[in-house]
Sequence to fold (160 residues):
Amino acid sequence: MKKVMTILVCLLALVACSDDDDHKLAVPERVTQAFHTKYPAATHVEWEMKGGYYVADCRMDGKEMDVWFGRQGDWVLTEIDEAWENLPPAVQTAFETGDYASWKREEYALLQYPLQPFVYVIEVEQGGSKVQLFYAEDGNLMKSLNVTGQDDTHWPIISF
Fold:
């Protein structure tokens, strides 16, 4: 009987903790309007705050996206999860002939900013180290950033 009560208490605690309706982020109307104007076909939208920005985690055209907005509804950035085969050939070649070619490729992303060309990110790991490599569409390595042990999802603070 003691085991049954312990299991019931654990299940009740789990249900109570998983109900985050009371903890939903209050997103200003101007931000949600800007998001729906820019990406009307986006689905599965969930909002969070990252580094002072409102971020819509969503899906569109079968891809995962994070869309970043400032507090006034200004679009800052869109991050789209990509596959290796969708990266430009010049980016693939630059990586394969670069200093990190032997590292394990973990993730790929396309970053879209309002006033600059696309940026392609390849995140690599080796041992306990994690590095993000930022490439221009022509394969030029613009920046490498060691993100070992850091929150590596704060794209807007990165300058090129």
About this structure: The chain is about 20% helix and 40% strand. The two ends are 63 Å apart (CA to CA).
